[in-house]
Design goal:
The protein has eleven helices and twelve strands. The protein is of the alpha/beta class. An eight-stranded parallel beta sheet has the order 3-4-5-6-9-10-11-12. Strands 1-2 form a two-stranded antiparallel sheet. A two-stranded antiparallel ribbon has the order 7-8. It binds NADP nicotinamide-adenine-dinucleotide phosphate and 2-acetamido-2-deoxy-beta-D-glucopyranose (NAG) (3 copies).
Length: 327
């Protein structure tokens, strides 16, 4: 009967419920929840790069490719497309809700304690979900409905976040774009440490002090804009090197039969960061998760480290008058 077992076993290995693709490893957050160590970004950019509808297809391709973490935000206007893409894959039986890890973010105009719950309910409605896995304060900065900076302390916002977690509308809570002193103040004043910090991390801004602080406090760092300025058509003229055609990077990529974007994502992963690359192109969505079968050498890591220039892409200077401007 062993042969029958083997045949059935082999069939189930090849069956549609077993991904033939890389599923990212997970990390346990300080609150006990598990989070995938790579996800799909769904922001279409300051200058919108395409219609929101593209995100639906990207989410479908991502789930098929093994992604389980999807990053969105109320301000991206992509929550509904995330819902559509996810619903298709849930209906097809490719994944179950509890296997997915959905992150969304509280926008700056809902920083008052009593505004947090309605804001999350609005996101849940768009996402067609009962709960999200992670809810983040998008920025430490508060604005009013006209976009003017207002003085609402993020400690008040954080208390609202603690309450929505208590009510079961999100499994984990965290913050985005907070600096070290703000994190320190948040922890000291409220006694509740964020499970996750989402900040810009890429070759040109590797955030060594922030990463060290987060490690010491058991805060997992999600790295946004992971490609930084490597694509020439997206890079500002003043952006430091490297670009995707950099000779040394191409050499490393060839050695592992990988691409330069994959080498960059692998480097961030090895730093302990959870990268959330955005793409709406199926082949790139697949390429970006295919980074779990090789490892960089210390020499290669040192080369990649040398590109750190404390150079930010996202710094939203229009809010620099906020008392809580983090950068
Ligand atoms: N918390 C925050 O304040 C904050 C701020 C910024 C971003 N984020 C999050 O982080 C995510 C990622 O950051 P991002 O969107 O700014 O930038 P990114 O992921 O570093 O780069 C996205 C760009 O790279 C292109 N691309 C992706 N994979 C590629 C590949 N393998 N080869 C060539 N080109 C590739 C994409 O084009 P195509 O789509 O055409 O492939 C897109 O133009 C966002 O989508 C969002 O979810 C959060
Ligand atoms: C927003 O702007 C309008 C028009 O200038 C003004 O009437 C309103 O009071 C402003 N709202 C806030 C919250 O400042
Ligand atoms: C190199 O990578 C490509 C794309 O993932 C794959 O199709 C090909 O089989 C790989 N070649 C080798 C020699 O591993
Ligand atoms: C962090 O943000 C605060 C505003 O809350 C600012 O005063 C401080 O200079 C920032 N710290 C760093 C290291 O950027």
């Amino acid at each position: 009967m062993l042969w029958l077992y083997l045949v059935l076993g082999a069939t189930s290995v090849l069956g549609k419920n077993t991904p033939s693709v890389a599923v990212a490893p997970t990390v346990r957050l300080r609150d006990g929840n598990l989070m995938p160590r790579l996800g799909l970004g769904t922001w279409l950019g300051f200058i919108k790069m395409g219609p929101e509808e593209e995100v639906r297809g990207a989410v479908e391709a991502a789930i098929d490719a093994g992604y389980r973490l999807i990053d969105t935000a109320n301000i991206y206007i992509t929550e509904e497309q995330v819902a559509l893409g996810m619903k298709k894959k849930l209906d097809e039986g490719v994944v179950k809700r509890e296997e997915m890890f959905i992150t969304t973010k509280l926008w700056n105009d809902a920083h008052r304690y009593e505004a947090v719950l309605p804001a999350l309910k609005n996101s849940l409605q768009k996402l067609e979900l009962e709960y999200v896995d992670l809810y983040l304060i998008h920025f430490p900065i508060a604005i009013d409905s006209n976009g003017s900076v207002v003085d609402v302390d993020y400690l008040e916002t954080w208390r609202g976040m603690i309450e929505v977690q208590r009510q079961g509308l999100t499994n984990s809570i965290g913050v985005s774009n907070f600096n070290i002193s703000q994190l320190q103040r948040l922890i000291e004043q409220t006694g509740v440490t964020p499970a996750v910090l989402q900040v810009e991390v890429n070759l040109n801004i590797q955030q060594p002090e922030l990463l060290e602080f987060c490690k010491a406090h058991n805060i997992v760092v999600m790295g946004y804009t992971p490609f930084g300025s490597i694509f020439p058509q997206k890079a500002a003229e003043s952006a430091p090197p490297p670009r995707v055609d950099d000779e040394e990077l191409v050499h490393i990529a060839k050695k592992y039969n990988k691409t330069v974007p994959q080498v960059v994502l692998r480097y961030l992963f090895e730093l302990g960061v959870v990268p959330i690359p955005k793409s709406v192109k199926k082949n790139r969505v697949e390429e970006n998760i295919d980074i779990f079968d090789f490892e960089l050498t210390p020499e290669e890591r040192n080369l990649l480290k040398s590109y750190d220039a404390n150079y930010k892409i996202v710094n939203v200077a229009l809010w620099k008058d906020s008392p809580y401007y983090p950068f």
